[in-house]
Automatic annotation (TrEMBL):
Keyword terms, alphabetized: Amino-acid transport, Cell membrane, Membrane, Transmembrane, Transmembrane helix, Transport
Name recorded for this polypeptide: Amino acid permease
Highest taxon above the source species: Bacteria
Positions of the Amino acid permease/ SLC12A domain: 9-435
Protein's membrane topology: Multi-pass membrane protein
Presence of keyword Metal-binding: no
Transmembrane segments: 12-33, 39-61, 82-109, 115-132, 144-169, 189-211, 232-255, 275-303, 324-348, 354-375, 395-415, 421-440
Gene3D superfamilies cross-referenced by the UniProt entry: Amino acid/polyamine transporter I
Organism of derivation: Fructilactobacillus hinvesii
Length: 446
């Protein structure tokens, strides 16, 4: 495959895939649930994600020719687990992209209320498909600038918060101050609210593993991959924690609405009239960025999964173009994402929301497999081979155990709310069904 991704591309791909509507639109719900203790939840989740990324990085550097991290799951945990993980990850990203295409259409109606959702969705998919089909560096450049817009918006908020706190600015609900963070209580809803916030916190990190799809197309991966993996989790924690800290210093957390964007609420409260339009543009960019990442990811995953297929469709999808791109797989996955336009008409929104929730919950399974695969990889190395590693997982194997226990902890948290419980049950049913399907498939082919 064509190695056209530079360091800045890889870093912003992971950032762009992670910082999205969960922060710009959904942070209000998390703040309302946990109050200032949400900052601690992000720090704990960030540590787990850092260990996840270090495990992934060590696997990637063990074989930089691998198309995706699913290759390592298959190698160290068996072909059945690799099959289930690969198709689960593919369906997860297609579902997420479908939701983002629909969201983009809704965001566009902010300016053009009569514009049909499918027009925006179709236009977006055509443009992103063309960008993904030219060269991999074209995708990287597109994602770089999408991510830059989100990063600039967050940095402006953080800078605004620092200035307003420094001058003790008068807001509609008081004064901008660090004391707005707690008002004497860091855990306003006790440990219950703090624990329940982990569901939104962890799922806001979905996409961080996308670096695992870039190693085979990255220039000088031995240098770039370690640098990006060390930098990205820290930057994500900085952006999330920094922006939430700024929000709760400007407005006391009690006054931040759980049903609207806290960014819009704070900027409008400061008298910035076009705040809603600005944030709408940012979230439109975030939706396009997520969809762009999904097309890149699903194209590579489909190419990887069908490479060894014996049927005609699989052979067609498992080919590279003369530019070193899986163009056929990219086109096929884009068409599948485009079905969201039809689903918007046929499938009730509640059903699609449920499917999206199941897909998001499945990321706990994917992340856990990456950490377990890394553990198995290290167990197979001799002491001499281990000593030659240049990018070792810190605190191995305790970091692996901590990350796995953290994923289990989040899964347990999902049991305590009806919506997340249903999604968790749905994801378990999906995974069991995939294992049974693979068992039937292997029996009939053998």
């Amino acid at each position: 495959m064509n190695r056209g991704l530079k360091s800045r591309h890889v870093q912003l791909i992971a950032l762009g895939g992670t910082i999205g509507t969960g922060l710009f639109l959904g942070a209000g719900k998390s703040i309302h649930l946990a109050g200032p203790s949400l900052l601690l939840a992000y720090l704990i989740a960030g540590i787990a994600c850092f260990f996840l990324m270090r495990a992934l990085g060590e696997l990637l550097l063990s074989n930089t020719k691998s198309v995706s991290f699913i290759d390592f799951i298959e190698q160290y945990l068996g072909p059945k687990t690799g099959f289930v993980a690969g198709w689960t990850y593919l369906v997860c990203w297609i579902t997420i992209a479908m939701a983002e295409v629909t969201a983009a259409g809704l965001y566009m109606q902010f300016w053009y209320p009569k514009l049909p959702i499918w027009v925006t969705g179709l236009f977006l998919l055509v443009i992103l498909f063309l960008m993904n089909s030219i060269t991999v560096s074209a995708f990287g450049e597109t994602e770089f600038w999408f991510a830059i817009i989100k990063v600039v918006a967050i940095l402006l908020l953080i800078l605004t918060g620092v200035v307003l706190v420094a001058i003790h600015y008068k807001t509609p609900v008081g004064y901008a101050s660090v004391t707005n963070l707690t008002n004497g209580n860091f855990f306003p809803h006790g440990l219950t609210g703090f624990f329940l916030s982990f569901q939104m916190v962890v799922f806001s990190f979905v996409g961080i593993e996308m670096i695992g799809m870039t190693a085979s197309e990255t220039k000088d991966p031995q240098t770039i991959i370690p640098k990006c993996i060390n930098d990205v989790p820290v930057r994500i924690i900085l952006f999330y924690v920094g922006s939430l800290l700024a929000l709760m210093c400007i407005f006391p957390w009690q006054y931040i609405s759980p049903s609207s964007s806290p960014f819009v609420q704070v900027f409008q409260g400061l008298g910035i009239r076009p705040a809603a339009a600005i944030i709408n543009f940012v979230v439109l960019t975030a939706a396009a960025s997520s969809c762009n990442s999904a097309i890149f990811t699903t194209g590579r995953m489909l190419y990887s999964l069908t490479q060894k297929s014996g049927n005609r469709l699989g052979q067609h999808l498992g080919k590279l173009s003369h530019r070193g791109l899986p163009t056929n797989a990219i086109f096929f996955s884009t068409v599948m994402i485009g079905l969201s336009v039809i689903l918007d008409i046929i499938v009730p929104s509640g059903v699609f929301d449920f499917i999206s929730s199941v897909a998001t919950t499945c990321f706990l399974f994917i992340w856990s497999l990456i950490v377990v695969a890394h553990y198995q990889y290290r167990q197979q190395l001799t002491p001499a081979e281990t000593s030659q590693l240049t990018f070792k997982m810190p605190f191995f194997p305790y970091a692996n155990f901590f990350t796995i226990f953290f994923m289990i902890f989040v899964a347990i948290i999902l049991l305590f709310q009806t919506q997340t419980l249903i999604a968790l049950i749905g994801s378990v049913v999906w995974l069991v069904g995939m294992y049974l399907f693979d068992f039937y498939r292997t029996r009939t082919t053998s």
